[in-house]
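fwd from M.: "can u put these together and see what the complex looks like"

so here's what she sent:
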Amino acid sequence: MVGKHPIGVLALQGAFEAHREVFRRLGVSSVLVRTAKELDAIDALVLPGGESSAMLRLMEPQELFVRIGKRIDAGLPVLATCAGVILLAEKVTPHQKSLGALAVDVERNAYGRQVFSSVEALRFSPQYQGDTAGEAVFIRAPRVTRVGEGVETLAWRSDDPVLLRSPGILAATFHPELGKGTLIHELFLRGIGRQHR
Amino acid sequence: MQNHDKKFQVKVGLAEMLKGGVIMDVTTADQAKIAEDAGAAAVMALERVPADIRVQGGVARMAALEKIQEIQETVQIPVMAKCRIGHIAEARMLQALEVDFVDESEVLTPADDENHVNKHLFDVPFVCGCRNLGEALRRIGEGAAMIRTKGEAGSGDIVEGVRHMRAVQRGIRTLGILDQHELMAYAKEIQAPYEWVCWVAEHGRLPVPNFAAGGIATPADAALVMELGAESVFVGSGIFKANDPDRRAKAIVQAVTHWQDPAKLLEISKGLGEAMSGLDSGKLTTEEMLSRRGW
């Protein structure tokens, strides 16, 4: 799927510009998605970090929640970071509506409030050893408490899964868009057959 | 990467996550819940909203700790709280309480009329107000992880907010056209740290997110400050002093996302009831203007 349609970054709230900047560094163009019409025009979607409850509220007027769910079911590839993972999960604690597109359960703000946000070293699964991203930025991060069938864990923080993959979906509970590296975005682009710099 | 850099990266990281979101002043857990349900990206816990501080007078201090805690227990979104300018002890207590962001704010009565808190010494991130680029860079020099233009809090009048946002953006644009040899003189003129002046000249933006605050009372006000370069907005008295806070809160949240789309703004702005009545900030005396506080 070498796209004539661009990659869209959901731009309702949060660090959407930071994702575009990473794609820019990789020589890949992306567009912002705020409306149903803009959602229809893209071939891959980024669900950025931010506040998941605010994004859910902002999806309501145009039924973007349902539309995004339908497109993912129909095979739209997704890169989700932090709040994006909360939106994709099957079950969220404390309870919150979610798309259920990724077979994981998550607990919001599980590492504590902002004073416990941190930069952490990751441990990668053997096949990605060479790709080590080194350090990852966690901001009031969610914790994945259950990894369901069909979901592969690519990296851990201590024993917590923090980088996960299922067909068409790459999900990070940290913020690859805030670091200097581009590894996670490259992994996503490779997964959807896109060329980059 | 140095530990110091990592700490700053994590602080600015939260500010990045709040972009495009609305930070709402709340005085009770019930209001915090209304704000979260309306789509606020964060709440600011305080004792009295700025409009009431104006009317009631007296010394305005950090909010009661029980109240902040009650709000923290009620919502999942980040909880911010204000300390007085230069009040190191209030700032330390708010950090110990694990608030997510401290606003060293001119809305409270200043504790120090010369110095602000050295924010590098804290793990909790700080947001500070500014009226122009020099003030913004002084606060960033002290370690602020987010800047908000001050506007005139509790007035419901957007003119000061516009003035301050325009001043910051004009300062940034001016740096873009200066010769490298002119940067020190400009730093001297605006009384800003030279290193940050150079950084802004090179990057064409502030090194931390820049939000707007003070006087935002309608979705149109929010759209206006976004147009002028704000990356998001703080709404104080504008929500809970309006006659239908819930609908107004939802509308301002939508306006910050869709500020470039006038048709959407029309739709969003209908049927909101009355906005807060407000004060003409041009009629305030210098002493009455909260934005004049901060050095």
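replying to her w this: The radius of gyration of chain B is 18 Å.
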